[in-house]
Records
---
Amino acid sequence: MALTIGDLIAEGADRIRRSPHIDHWQEEAARFDAEAFLASVTDVGDPAAVVPARAVRRFERMVDRRVRGEPAARILGSVDFLDLEVRVRDGAFFPRISSETMTREAARRLRGRRRPVHVDLATGVGPVALGVAHLVPAAEVHGVDILPAAVEGARANARRLGLRGARFHLGDLFAPLPPRLRGRTDAITIHPPYIGEGEVEDQPQEITAYEPAVTLTDFSPDGLGMVRRVAAEAPGWLRPNGWLLIEVGTDLGRRAAGILRRAGYRDVETVADEYGITRTAIGRRPRRAP
């Protein structure tokens, strides 16, 4: 039986949508996955066009993998992040498209500054750091991660994309950064591990089976331990009017904002993504900082 582009997308999206191994946080995500899988195996664009049998088989194998919980980024080998092809690798956190919101917010705060400096903590394979380097070519960008595979992947992505303004360091949060960045960083971003220690085992397989535990939880009961630590340490690295931007889960935005307020940050706000989901807590450096 001949199958069209439209048939395959509808069938694939339905199968993905029904999988119990996937975090179905965004309504259209299953369709987006199916479209991305099909686009990777055929360049046919007409929804009514018949797909060659070989491409159908490749597409169905990809859908099978997704239904079993394998992340779409791992299946495809890359993520389209702010029009950049960011390649992924095992042993590192897979980029989330939700991080585009935080990246744009950081870039907006960097534009117009003289010699802007951006630091991205828990950078993974570098999507946020690379996104800022792409959006603000004049920026000096530093990404940091504790996992060797992540830093290796980020450096490889920077080389392939030709983003020479982005540098990546192996280590724990601020520790590996050049000391000269103290007090002169304009924006710090982080997508921290924010799942509470006792909640990890309740997450779907796509989250627990394919990424290191340290990318999912900071082992604090409420998952906000790293947020508190970064909020406390960031002022020493920020300029007087510098910004800290933190991406958290859909139910933690207000709590992260509360942490910033209690730490003395000014102009604290939360920002929703294009789907109206609060994702990012933002604050300006406290007036009194180390």
---
Amino acid sequence: MLIRPPGLSKHLPIKGFITIDLLIGLSIGLIISASLLAIWLQLQISTSKSLSLIRFNQDLQAIIHVMAGDIRRAGYWAWTPLSMQPISQNPFMTPTNAITIDKANATETDASCLIYSYDLNQDGQLGGALVEQFGFRLHNQAIEMRTGGSTFSCSAGSWQDISQTDLVITTLNFSIENKIIYPITGCVTCITRQLLSITLIAHSASHATQTTTLKHTITIRNDLLS
């Protein structure tokens, strides 16, 4: 118990009470500051994860966009009525150069590679100075694009990784559906439309729980004539 000294005004504060009040105020201030700091850190972590997920999805969408844009051109031939070959003999749709689904090697899953060709330099002939045989494949958890090579297959030639560093591709699957569009029945010479479906599953290397599945269907612009 604090005893007020004789002659001390009762209106003056006592030093002991001032010290206790100050300590209590400081403690409350520290608790509030710590709580605000914890909330701020949590918001920073949440914002960082959200930005990482947005970038992750954008990277996957960009890869799908690149693949779809090029695959749509499969089988294109710069044919004109003055061409020496009949239109039914498109060199970019022969069994050797037509759309083929396979895999890079025995360790990859089936239907994880697609190769195709089209008349890139529009000279009406297969080959020439420019590369006219293309492809995309899953290889070592990355998506690769074919850039050349003398042997046209999923397991040969030159391939370049087009995946971002943070992307881990776990599944790449191609499937194709052929629909005869003319004539409807009893065709001798048929016009067939090709619909190609792509399934892509990936997760972030830095956030393994951020798994995304994308599915995209492409209509090949150049119909088969057989």
---
Amino acid sequence: MGILHPIVLEASLHETLWGGRRLEREGWKKLPPGDVVIGESWETEISTVALNEPYAGRTLGSLVEELGPGLLGQQAMAIAGQRFPLLAKFIDANDKLSVQVHPDDIYANQHEHGKLGKTEFWYILDAVPGASIIHGFKAPASRREVQKAIEDITLEKLLQDVSVSAGDVIFVPAGTVHAIGNGIMLYELQEYSDITYRMYDYGRLTATGTPRELHVERALEVSAYDRSPHIKMQPLPLPSGEGYRDRCLVACQYFVTRELIFEQDGVPHGYMKSKTGGSCIILSSLGAEVMVRYGDAFEYGEKLTRGRTMVLPAALGDYYIQGSGNLLLSYVPAPNDEVRRLWEEKNGGI
């Protein structure tokens, strides 16, 4: 196979009814000109194209097919199979999203042609005063009660509305009825799945005057009707190093996400050395300007800048990161992953 290299990706931008221009206004992305409103930037979509050599111009999906376990890692393949396991996104909610729910792996496999379900988490990057999300119900509800509220366009009376601000970490397991409110910018990581059942859209109409498509029956089949026991997660501080701090934001069987904060406090740059293992690693810059060095003598390097995402193949081996700013690092954990165990203890055994 030869030496593997990090893959710097050109994200795919998605126009939505509820999007805006904030991703460009705040220096995250370059958006199409004009009045096009972009709601989502998909960082690791399999159609995204590599920007760096020797992969430049190749899609992430084609690299998965060619490099297989060397890119994905055995642990990632144990969870997701021969496909890229996780989809990272930046989301600009200029208006509120519809109320929706995602199935778990079992339901998706049986009813959606072998696809994965979708458990996800949100890291709130910014929120206007009073911004909120929906996460489950105010009190336990019955399927019939929810169905009637959808028909009567009164479902929001049953839903749990939670105010959010920058720095909040929201875990959204499959089956959780949820929605992102307006005025929120966030980073999302999820199982690689495109299955969304739109349950409710507040009676809104499209530009042509028709209601948006709903998927009520399937949404009702997969929803959890209890009140959400956990919404805002407690990050877990981890041992840090020279010029950087490390903490785990969220952990579950599908992903672990750590936030690395590289600081120039008494040293030229923050510096972290590590090694890849059973899973590919997703690095997303939340403003970080870093260099990722790799190779037998660390003779190779790739730069990562604000709003960009890079994938480190599982077989990359030793690497180090040097620079400044905030960086998210995500991977598929092994069953005995110590960071996951400690995070779950701190957050009540989720």
---
Amino acid sequence: MDANSNSPDFEAEVALLLTDLSAAQDELIHVLTAKRDRMASGDLEGMQALTSREDRLASRLEECQERRTALLDRAGRAGRPHANIRQLAASMPADSRDNLDKQVKETSSRVRMLQHHSLTNWVLAQRSVLHLSQLLEIVATGGKIRPTYGKGESAHSRGALVDKAV
């Protein structure tokens, strides 16, 4: 069988994979935005409500990954380029190559946007943890935080390991 006789199947599969992946990415961007809004407002219940959507999206993305792997394996067995979807799409006939190339570029762009959203959420979560740890320290010390190092009584009033000098 000629490798090009399979190209309509590969074209359709690549296009469908990219369409499904794009839809999942778009939904994930919405979920990450909603999660950031809920973190910023302290809406713990709202964040927990997003968990089921996140789980469904993770499953959809895993399925896309499995489809991608199977598609590239089949392309390799058919003698087609199979290092990645971009390479496979570039090997398609000219009439479909441009559209597939556009889909690949849009999907790659969304990946960068997802990375940005994920990093933003991570920074927000880290700042929240830092804020909470500072609040706990204030509560634990009664708001009287003394320096660990320095001159005078405050430097020596705490931290003696065995004996406290009088």
